[in-house]
Specification:
238 residues, mainly alpha, Arc Repressor Mutant, subunit A, Tetracycline Repressor, domain 2, 2 domains
């Protein structure tokens, strides 16, 4: 890796840490220069504008979210299992990221009424995530796991709303029962749309198990061991 690339990646890592606490609008070349012991012009040279820096931070987080949430979910069977895996990895992501939780949600309040490339990148990131939820739901309907009259776009709306609420309840209000509440809500949502009793029972069994497993995460020293523990559960057939 070239020195310039290493420097850029280090800048982005430091920028993400700042943005996770203070928001993307809290980023400045001056603050980064002080933190990295670089000149302000040296930091600026890697991006050219503050908007480019903020957009690059979002892209950096997008890669992290893809690695932590979407890629693991693609390893499990399509349909309900994949939907449940996406949701599980999302709540795990929200609970274990020291700063910011689900960064997309944190940034939304800053850019919901703004225009420009940073907002466009944020919208693109969230749209990609919601498309993954939609694809899993459409597959679950096609596979006969959910009722044929289920509205997948409405379900995406409701599932995404649960994640927004979890970020608020867990990270802002620090409510100890936040995960229990979101587990119950997700289970009821799926049970109401499940095609038969077998899938209704499966929705409750699966979510109850993964939420118990999530409480054990701190006991694993590596993500590899954690994924090995969860793999049989996530890969089991519906």
């Amino acid at each position: 890796m070239r020195k310039a690339q290493r420097t850029r990646e280090n800048i982005l890592q430091q920028a993400y840490e700042i943005a996770s606490r203070e928001g993307l609008e809290g980023l400045s070349f001056g603050a980064l220069a002080d933190r990295l012991n670089m000149s302000k012009s040296g930091v600026y040279a890697h991006f050219g504008s503050i908007e480019s820096l903020r957009t690059s931070v979002l892209r950096c987080y997008r890669e992290r979210f893809e690695r932590d949430v979407l890629q693991p979910a693609r390893l499990v069977p399509d349909g309900m299992r994949r939907l449940q895996a996406i949701f599980f990895h999302c709540i795990h992501h929200i609970s274990t990221h020291t700063e910011g939780g689900m960064f997309y949600i944190s940034c939304a309040a800053e850019y919901d009424d703004r225009r420009g490339p940073v907002r466009d990148e944020l919208v693109s990131c969230i749209t990609e995530f919601r498309a993954a939820l939609l694809e899993a739901l459409q597959s679950a309907i096609r596979l006969g796991q959910l009722k044929p009259e289920s509205d997948p776009r409405q379900l995406v709306f409701e599932i995404y709303a649960l994640l927004l609420l979890l970020q608020h309840e867990k990270r802002l209000l620090a409510l100890p029962d936040a995960f229990l509440r979101v587990r119950l809500s997700f289970t009821r949502l799926i049970q109401n749309q499940a095609r038969d009793a077998r899938f209704q029972a499966d929705a409750d069994t699966f979510t109850a198990t993964v939420f118990r497993q999530s409480q054990l995460m701190s006991g694993y020293r590596s993500r590899t061991k954690w994924e090995a523990c969860c793999a049989p559960l996530l890969a089991s057939s519906a």
